[in-house]
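Homework help board

Subject: predicted structure for assignment chain

Our instructor gave us this sequence and asked us to write out the predicted structure in token form, then describe one feature. I got the tokens but I'm not sure how to describe them. Can anyone check?
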Amino acid sequence: MTIEFRHAKTDDIVAVLNLHYRYQADSINEEDKEDGFITTAFNADQLAELIDNEKGLFVAVKENEIIAYAMSASWEFWSRWPMFAHMVKNLSNLHYAGQTLSRENSYQYGPVCVDKSVRGQGVFEDIFNYSLQAMSKRYPTLITFINKINPRSYAAHTQKVGLDVIHEFEYNNNQYYELACSTSKITKSSGE
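My token output:
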């Protein structure tokens, strides 16, 4: 069966939240945590804003079920969470691909979530590329962060889609990698 990659619709919010809940740090089954987890919690209103205003929620659909999502949005959207506000404060101190980063030339990608039933089949790479291509029309640089206690996410983002570590930082007693890539970069799916 084929997998469809598309922009999310408001009708998708409940399914996205259900998938998110299964892999969010506060609610994930402990045995699943070693395979990756999501730090930030979201609600339906925030996802509606992400869909309607930011055009930044992307989904993978297989047999009418959402099996993956990726979020991407402006720093203005993300700044309501203290972690992202902390990242914004340091943007002008970071450089990537010959430019000083700013709210105008970069955006925050992630979280991304792939259901364990389809991991290792190229879904991560494909949804990453779909979101990257969609956001490339507005921004030249993708920025994201990964908790250092999440090695699966780190490996996926650095090895499978080639993100570059540009900074390391501490926030709320946690250690993070900050990563970047050019939105003109599209990687190959391992499922091809």
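Reply (TA_rk): Your tokens look well-formed. For the description, you could write something like this. The domain at 4-182 is CATH 3.40.630.30 (Aminopeptidase). That's the kind of observation they're looking for.
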